[in-house]
Amino acid sequence: MEYRTLGRSGCVVSTLALGTMTFGAETDEAGARAQLDRFTEVGGTLVDSADVYSGGQSEQIIGRWLATCPADVRDRVVLATKGRFPMGEGPNDVGISRRHLARALDASLTRPGVEPIDLYQVHAFDPLTPLDETLRFLDDAVRAGKISYVGLSNFTGWQLVKAVAVAQSQHLSVPVTLQPQYNLLVREIEWEVVPAAQSEGLGLLPWSPLGGGWLTGKYRRDQQPTGATRLGEDPERGVEAYAGRSAQQRTWDVVDALQVIAQQRGVSMAQVALSWLTDRPAVTSTILGARTLEQLDDNLASAGLHLSVEQTAALDAASDPAAADYPYGGPGQDQRSRSLDGR
């Protein structure tokens, strides 16, 4: 296992994180405990949850596991969770207002029975709540010893920059991470979100790194996909074109490129996809979302795997989201560029 700092902070975490969205749903408690044991056995430290995962069951399962862990294992775990989405039927049971987050955070402290939570993340932007209200609450929570670091999730580039600017201008705790959807099939965040994170020193914690299973090779051209994925039921979900290719053709181009490199390296397609993502600019830790211990073992085998320059370039080309000329394509980039000769 390799390690990096948690964004701009001095806290060190493993470059692979264990996502726990399946705990209490697709993965029962015994399976969840087995995953947590294996993850920490191989040197994993960052465990990510959220209050809405299985209605709080994920946090509870983590708490019961922590209570049975040896002290040294418990001390190595860096626990992250999130609040924002509905945990009740009332109008104040959702959002990032001081009122909702105060209750959400206290509940997220109680379920796992820990204090402080190492990384508390705003699960998504809330247009109804001023950012200074949210950030002041989070700063109060840091000062009260309830959380150690502040993080964001699913923010756009302008929302991220605004949050950092508000925190800095009011001398509040500045967010250190951003958790976005990011993988070989979802690279559009590279146009604005990734540069914003790099500019402000936030580390990325990508979720859905395997594109709901598409990047594992589980689907084939001659088979109709079954089961829900976080990217939809099939790669024909959109009509958008990428450099003259349909969304469907781009998906299969990526799958083909992954298969070739996996055969070259003698590893699984999932491991290649995870290696590509973990080595992207600004990424701190890639969140694994395995349903079974076997899937987790395969994902964890990507630790320490680094692709060659040629292999990375092949995946970059196959997965190119092909920005329009303006503002993110070549002509738009040229307008914002400047060489040392002054041109």
Kindly describe this structure.
The chain has 343 residues and is of the alpha/beta class. The chain has a single domain (3-219, 226-232, 270-306), classed as NADP-dependent oxidoreductase domain (TIM Barrel, Alpha-Beta Barrel). It is built from twelve helices and twelve strands. α6 packs parallel to α7 and α8 packs antiparallel against α11 (309-319). The protein is globular.
- How many alpha or pi helices? 12
**Beta strand %:** 5-15%
- Fill in the CATH topology: TIM Barrel
Give the count of structural domains: 1
- What structural class do the secondary elements suggest? alpha/beta
Measured as a percent range, the helix fraction is 25-40%
CATH architecture: Alpha-Beta Barrel
Mean residue pLDDT: 93
Oligomer: single chain
N-to-C span? 45 Å
Query: Could you tell me the radius of gyration in angstroms?
Result: 20 Å
Main sheet: which strands, in order across?
9-8-7-6-5-4-3-12
CATH domain class name:
Alpha Beta
Approximate shape: globular
**Major beta sheet, specifics?**
8 strands, parallel
By CATH, the superfamily comes out as NADP-dependent oxidoreductase domain
Total strand count, please?
12
* Low-pLDDT regions: 227-239
Brief characterization of the structure:
This protein is an alpha/beta fold and 343 residues long. It is built from twelve helices and twelve strands. It has helices at 29-41, 57-68, 71-76, 98-110, 131-143, 157-169, 193-200, 247-265, 269-278, 293-300, 309-319, 330-335; strands spanning 3-5, 12-14, 16-19, 46-48, 78-83, 117-122, 147-153, 177-179, 203-204, 241-242, 245-246, 286-288.
